[in-house]
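lol ok so funny story. i was supposed to be doing the assay writeup but got distracted and ended up predicting the structure for this chain instead. priorities right. anyway since i did it might as well share w the group, maybe its usefull for someone
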Amino acid sequence: MIKRAKGVTISQVADAAGVARSSVSRAFTRPEMLLPETVERIMKAAEALGYVPNHTARALSTGRHGNIGLIVPDIANPFFPPLIQAAQLEADRSDFCIFLGNTGESPKQEDKLVGRFAGQVEGLVLASSRLSEERIRAHAAQLPLVLINRDIEGIPRVLIDSGPGVREAVDHLARLGHRKIAYVSGPANSWSNNQRRNAIRSAAAPAGIEVEIVAAALPSYESGRNVVKAILSTGATAAVAFDDVTAHGVLAGLSENKVSVPRDFSLIGCDDVLGAVTYPALTSVSNRSVEAGRVAVSLLLDMLRAHAMRDERCVLETNLVVRSTTAEVD
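and the output, tada:
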């Protein structure tokens, strides 16, 4: 439990700042209801006196916990730490803390975490949710909820649109002379995976490129390594991977099979989280995870202030970042 400094009361802060007790309470819980200069005066008085609000007592008396939940499918995937950090910074601006949950790509675990968090948080952000639409709607009916990279009508969502970047990737490979490429797919229940696969197919046909889909068990380094033989058996001369982690595994597997990149094979990742640290440097579709985390939490806090849910759909576009794993085909 967070406790006040001994002997310091909300009344003392109110007297020091020259405001009512209710104004002190609002400064810590609903600062948007006060003038900025009033909030600043109260905060300075509280700091001078050593006053710290008791969040547990506030939750018992008001039902407001000052916490929001953020659930991700794989905390070890480098796409998510910048998103988590941005979400926490945005929450902190309104004096909210974030409870973080990791599902390990399991819909069952995600459902369990949502249930566990529900009594302790005021709202939830689900990033790349693996739940069915039915379960997401059921949870959204119980508490404020915002989605990242799930497009469900009626629920506020932030979507990183891979389409423009993936189409640039296909056009780039076409200009390099590739006529058959592989898409190394991600989780079947991933919205981003379906979007990327569809974008590749729609861009490939007009460019005269044939696409083979090669399924990876999980978006992981080992999965990428393990599908290299399947990729090569298709006759493809290039591949686009679901994400950079999978692409990194493909890069290693190609090397183990004596396939030189970029001389013999071109490779492109998605999310651009490893492009600058692989060898050769990985061409990848850009990453908007920081903006996604910030905007999602901002939407959720707006919902909490308004006590209402709006059907808001925020789209963040992407582009191709060309590096050393793509080159001319002889």
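Confidence is low (pLDDT under 50) at residues 1-5, 59-63. The two ends are 67 Å apart (CA to CA).
back to the writeup now i swear
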